[in-house]
Every structure is written in structure tokens, then in C-alpha cells.
Amino acid sequence: LPRRRAPLVLLGLVGLGCGGPDPGAQPEGWDSAVAMRPATDRNADPKTFEMDLEARIEELELVAGLKTPAWTYDGSIPGPFVRANVGDRLIVHFRNTLPEPTTIHWHGLRIPAAMDGAAGHSQPEIQPGETFTYDFVLPDAGLYWYHPHVHSAAQLGFGLYGGLLVDDPTEPADLGDELVLVLSDMAIRDDGSLQDPQTGLDFGTLFGREGDLLLVNGKKNPEIRARAGRRQRWRIVNAAKSRYFQLAMKEHTFTRIGGDGGFMEKPVESAALVLTPGERADVLVVPRGAPGSTLSVRWVPYDRGYGTTFNRPEEEVFRVRLTDEAEVAETPRPKTDRVITPLDLEGATPIALDLTQGEVDGKMVMGINGVPSWEAVPVPATVGETQVWTVKNTMDFDHPFHLHGFFFQKLDASLAPIHPMEWKDTVNVPVDGTGRFAVRYDDRPGMWMFHCHILDHADAGMMGVLDLQGGSGHSAH
Ligand code: C2O
Ligand code: CU
Ligand code: CU
Fold first, then answer.
1. Residues 7-167, CATH architecture
2. Which residue has the least CA distance to atom 3 on ligand 1?
3. Using CA atoms, how far apart are residues 391 and 401, in angstroms rounded to an integer?
4. Cα first-last separation, the chain
5. pTM for the whole thing?
6. pLDDT score of 298 more than 70
7. Pick the CATH number of 177-322 from 2.60.40.420, 3.40.50.300, 2.60.120.560, 3.90.226.10
8. Residue 451: CB within 6 Å of ligand 1?
9. Where are the domains of the chain?
């Protein structure tokens, strides 16, 4: 079966005003085996994407023959896939019909604090039966995602997450047949019911609770089709609440061209691809093999500090079936190199954080600088300021550290940028190691959260807040 045109070609037509498909719709050429339900744009203005979204419980058949009362956005897992262009306005009329409060956090988007969804900091919880309208401009191209920010571990683990792709119509065409892959895992009992979130930190769940059911766009072990030699562009987000994904494909390498915040300085080639919870990757893969054969994309154990003691065995996440057509010669890869200017660290304020574990009233808590989130003092900052964060891991296993609302640049021990440079919002802080990054607050005062993106850890206290004050009022955007 021949693949159709790459979606970017279609978006080009939209940009020229020739009509064409709604950019939010499932683009042609995407593999139906991993198709996500597209969000519906009900606004006629091509620069505004306006949609309704409801959080509700719905019975889904995630495992054949089993009914699961999943927590969903609009009745699907993942929630509706939003696709719009950079600079577009996104309006989401949200309704909560869950039995408990929730909010939506737009992970990675540089939007005003009031739209960030951080319950208790930037907006009140949205109670059952209540509505809230999110309304903001999409400032940067890249792959983002949305998820709750109240009891995040439980709500996300029950199925509340969705993908959001922000296209840049000027980016090089034909990087490959494009797929967005939202990876997750769920913990489901043999009768189909959801396992308790069990976010308490006993020994077995200290690592963060993982689910047995690996999902790609809500489907278990799907099979996608590809033509041998024809480049694929996979845009991947790890939407699992605690599980690290290390992916490998025998005799193939991944060429990563981008991450959390769009293209990186230069591509990096590797045999395995690691995504901590929250992270995104934009990778090119050229599948090769005999026509009609299958290639296995596998989850492989990643050492998070205890060797692989607590890891599960290697497992297939999805398969690529090569079509019966003869292998084609690989076409030259368009350049995606991007100039990223290192932030000027002259006069930057140092911020030192230790990721810690402790006990409060006989209960194990996780925290930052010795205190859990509910006792934490906000980190002060002013618009216009640049800070260098040094996040030290004093514990026995890795933590993916995430900051809301601002991209940062990773630094090495001498505070030089790590090349190839890229804009990040989540960074792995390895066991006995340190995560260092530079961040500049150009605009958008408010309360911004930071936390471990193993959401069991965040809920257990490994979270804090940045208090960004307005400053001299200058704004870079
Ligand atoms: Cu995906 Cu507070 O984060
Ligand atoms: Cu976030
Ligand atoms: Cu953690």
C-alpha cells in the first residue's frame, strides 16, 4: 500500500490559502493503526482553533474483551489531538464532569500563568460540573501535550493526557512520513478495572508506579506500515506518569533532530532513544529490511540507579511492517540545523536545589531542599533576570526535573552550554548527579511550578514554585 503525501505538503497548501484540510484534522498519510481522534475546530478564522473539551469517565476497550472505566478527555485515550500553526490562538472550552476537581496544564507551552493550569498557584481547581476557558496564543513550534494538574499521578494514570502539535509552515518539507506517537502505560486489573493509583511511597512504588499496559496513541502494540528505505519522522512524547521509555530498534539508529522546544542545534544519532516522563523527541528513522518483514520497536530497560533490578523485561512497544514494495533509495535529509544563542550568564543568579527524601510525621515524603512542596518557600525571580539552576540528586535513583512556562538551556559542570544545544523544559537528573540549566524570564510574571515528572514523586512532595515578579516591565515578546 503506497504511502500518501507527507502532511507538511498539505499544511503548505493551507498556508497558501488554497483551502485544504483543517490543520487540526488527522493528516493524510498518517497510519490508521495509530490514528488519534482529532480535535474539532469550530472557529471559521483560520488563525484561531476553538474547541470544546470534556473530562469524563468513559468505558473503553483498551485490552480486547475488557471494559475499563477510563478517565478521558472527550471519551478517548489519548484525548483529542490538537494540531495548529505557530502563532495561532487556541481556545478550549473545558468542562469537568469527573467526580473530582481537575485542571489542564499545557506542558511546555510559554503561555500566561493564568492559563498554565497549575491548581492552587495560577488557577483554582475546576470543580465537578464547572467549566473553564483556556485561551492563549501558541508561541513556539514543536510537540507539546496536555494533562491534569490536580492529583496528577492518579488522573494522568487513569487516562487523562493528549498531544498538541504546533506546526511551523516554514520548516523544511519532506523530513519523512510523519507520525505523532504518544507513549504511555496504564495499570489495569485482569477484570479491566483501573488499579488504585497507590501513590504512597512504599518500597515497591518508590520508583514511581508503572503500568503493565504499554500504549501507543492509546493502542496496545500497534503495527504501522512503512516502505523500506523511505524515511519516517516520529514525533514522540512520553506521557506516562512514571515510566522512562528507552526505545531501540535492532540494526537501526535514530537521528534526533529536535526535543522539547523544536529543532536542536544539530542532529544526534544514537542506537537507543531515552525519554523521561514529560520529554519529547523528534526523530528520523529509515526502516530497512526485506519487503513484507516486520521490525520491532522495543522498550529496553534503562538504568535509573539500581542497575536494572526494578526494571521489567524488554518488551515490544510497536511494530513496523514493511510494505511489499521494493526498498527505495534514501532521499537526502533536509537540514534542520538551528542557531541557538547561549544565554548570557554574566550576573546570572545561582539557584541551588537538592532533590531530597525525608519523613514527616512518620510518613515518607519527597521534597526539595529537605521540605515537601506544601512547606516550600517560593524561589524568587524577576522578569528580565537570568538564573542558573543547579539541581542536585541526593537520592538513589533518577528524577526528571520539569519547569513550567519557560524553556531552559542545559549546562555542563563548568556552566558551558551542552552541545548540540536545544530548548528543554524537562531534564533528567541522574542518580548522584546534577542537572544544570540556564533560564531567562523574558516575560509573563506569575507563580510557576517545577517538579519531578515522575508524578508519584511530585504528588509526594517533590515540587516547588517559582514566584516571578513583574520587574521593570520590559517584555521581549
Ligand atoms: Cu507535565 Cu507540571 O507538568
Ligand atoms: Cu509542565
Ligand atoms: Cu522523582
1. Sandwich (2.60)
2. 107
3. 8
4. 46
5. 0.92
6. yes
7. 2.60.40.420
8. yes
9. 7-167, 177-322, 349-469
